[in-house]
Amino acid sequence: MNEVPLVPRSRSLQKTLSFVHNPIPVFYEYMEDYGDNYYIYLGGLKKCLVTANPKMIRHILQKNHKNYIKSEIQTDILAQYIGNGLLTSDGDYWLRQRRLIQPGFHKERIKSLVSLIQDVVDAQLEDLEANRGQTLDLYPKMMEIAFRIIGNALFSNSATQDELNIIEHAIYTVQQFIVKRVRQPFMQPIYWLNGDLKKYKKIAENIDDVVLGIIQARKKLDEQPDDLLGMLINTRYEDDGQPMTEKQLLWESNILFVAGHETSANALSWMLYLLAKHPEAADTLRAEIKAQLGDSSLDFDVLMKMPYLNAIIMETLRMYPPAWIMDRISKEDDEVDGVPIPKDMLIIALVYHAHYKKEDWDEPEKFKPERFIDQRNHPAYFAFGAGPRMCIGNNFAMLEMQIFLVQFYRKFDVALTDETDATIKALITLKPENGMKLKLI
Ligand code: HEM
Q1: Which of 215, 315, 375, 430 could make a disulfide contact with 324, Cβ separation 3.0–4.6 Å?
Q2: pLDDT digits (tens, 9 = 90+) for 9-39
Q3: Residue 139: inside a domain, yes or no?
């Protein structure tokens, strides 16, 4: 067995401030000194195993996934606010939910959402017309687009604009608080004393009230619209033939909102940034759109087979993986290539760092969509995770990004300006720290 090096507690304590500000360079520094796998004391307290080794990450997520559960950050803290469902549960309950919901996300089902997603994108792009010629922060716009897409895909016309606004604002506010809780666990007693714990729970309950109202109204309909909520309401458990309860419908809807909008918004923002930085790639994309679609309406099968479009999306998610980090806890002792993984160990898988390893990627610092033209399954690629807990919304996410890019580049272009700043902020997701200011052409 190999000895796994430990970053001295004094060093991780010294780095606390830089770590809280931006953990990515700190993880890099440690990697340089200690290699792909090392122990650190998180917040000076909790010992955990950090890995940027693709084989180790795949082992944990996929090969021996049965030995690993999610950490309490999701199954406890996040679940307190959005409920117990796909993203936030484990074990038998999770498996039953996943089996129930998975078919609703198969390509054949997602196909029926093309025009619904396109309508949202077109309406949002129409709004942007007024800004043509200006430099503006496109990040809030991408957040709005991604939120409207998941909102409409879930509820089609059943949610009013006001209701969607309430949900959007409340999710945003609660997420900010969750990040604070996770980053500064020692503040927990303060949050309890100053009433923040109660305050944010109440805000999360506002989301529940709105979403439950929509679900109850929808359950009264004889026929469900062809959207994700319709799918959730109509589906039946294989074992007892029963539908989900109202509470389960609420939790899974909340989870799809939370899991499915910031990740996509970040990806869209980074994509525009990379295409503004590489106008030759935008030209190639435009040529592909012209050749494959011309001016005709969008077709699911054509979109799926546009090699350059899909390669741009995959390369963006390699360079800026929105889910840049994943965590698991080991149930039993395990081992990968002589590296021991002790029982009950919190493991931090660095997706971002795995996506930049020189051993696995040719010139990883460079934006090279071509690398994904002939290769869709790279062993060191984890943008959507791996194994049975891989992103259930990956086909949906691909589709919304495809539709957005095609419709955007049919109308607009973007260019870098002096104000463009691509500093990354690595919170729960990887986002642009100062928004994404680009010139809209
Ligand atoms: C670019 C966009 C997206 C990225 C990069 C992304 C990434 C991921 C990753 C890496 C995981 C696995 C986490 C883990 O194993 O710990 C995950 C899980 C999940 N994602 Fe996504 N996601 C995206 C979009 C979406 C969308 C649009 C939806 C919903 C429509 C969605 C719903 C979910 C759900 C429900 C899970 C939990 C699945 C489970 O544990 O069974 N995601 N996502």
Answers
A1: 430
A2: 888 888 888 887 889 999 999 999 999 999 9
A3: yes
pLDDT digits 0-9 by tens, 52-72: 999 999 999 999 999 999 988
224 sits in the region (left: phi over 0; alpha: psi -120 to 50; else beta) called beta
Which pTM was predicted?
A: 0.95
Q: Which domain holds residue 383?
A: 9-440
Choice from 391, 401, 403 to test ligand 1 binding pocket (greatest atom count within 8 A of CB):
391
- Cβ–ligand 1 distance for 351 under 6 Å, the answer no
- 229 membership: H or E segment, kind and range: helix 228-234
Distance 150 CA to ligand 1 centre (A): 13
Considering the chain, what is the average pLDDT of its residues?
93
1 assigned to some structural domain: no
The answer to whether position 3 is within a domain reads no
How far out from the chain centre does Cα 247 lie?
24
| Number of domains, the chain | 1
What average pLDDT does this structure show over 320-334? Answer: 96
Report residue 311 as tokens. 């390669």
pLDDT at 402 over 80: yes
In a domain, 385, yes or no: yes
Amino acid 121: pLDDT: 97
What is the four-CA torsion angle of 304, 307, 308, 313, rounded to 10 degrees? 50
- 54 Cβ inside 6 Å of ligand 1: no
Q: Mean pLDDT: which of 18-22, 163-167, 339-343 is highest?
A: 339-343
Which residue type is seen at 96? R
Tokens of 229: 């909520």
- Count CB-CB contacts under 10 A for residue 280: 8
Alpha carbon nearest to ligand 1 atom 11, residue? 391
Q: Is 259 a pocket residue for ligand 1 (Cβ < 6 Å)?
A: yes
SS3 at position 241: coil
Task: Provide the CB-side half-sphere exposure for 336 (13 A, CA).
Answer: 21
What is the domain-level CATH number for residue 367? Answer: 1.10.630.10
| CB neighbours of residue 353 within 10 Å | 21
Q: Is 322 in the pocket of ligand 1 (CB under 6 A)?
A: yes
* 87 ligand 1 Cβ < 6 A: yes
Is the CB–ligand 1 distance for residue 255 below 6 Å?
yes
